Amino acid sequence: MQHTQQTLRTVAHDNSSNAYILSAQMIQLEVVQGAVARLMDRIDEITHNGWDKNPGMACCAIDEIRDTVRLIDMALFPLYKEMSEEVKTLNIHAQNLYDTVIGESEAQSV
Known about the structure:
Elements: H1 2-48, H2 55-109
Organism: Lysinibacillus sphaericus
Protein name: WXG100 family type VII secretion target
């Protein structure tokens, strides 16, 4: 019983920590989403002003868009990897919790 309580305490603490990390990463994801929204606004502005028709302005606009997309990609890829790791960790903790609770109740019912 002592081992079960310790396992449950550890899993609960670890899950709480992982939830805080995921919350912070969600805020980072909102920042990336904001950058995408600003990029879309900028593209709308470029087409509304007809800059896409002028070869010189179109070239500058393409450079600006390319640089912005690269920055967004640089932010998004590591964030995705970090979030994937946190989800994997949460799944491991959930499995440990399940094994502890179900294993304990099956052992008691035998």
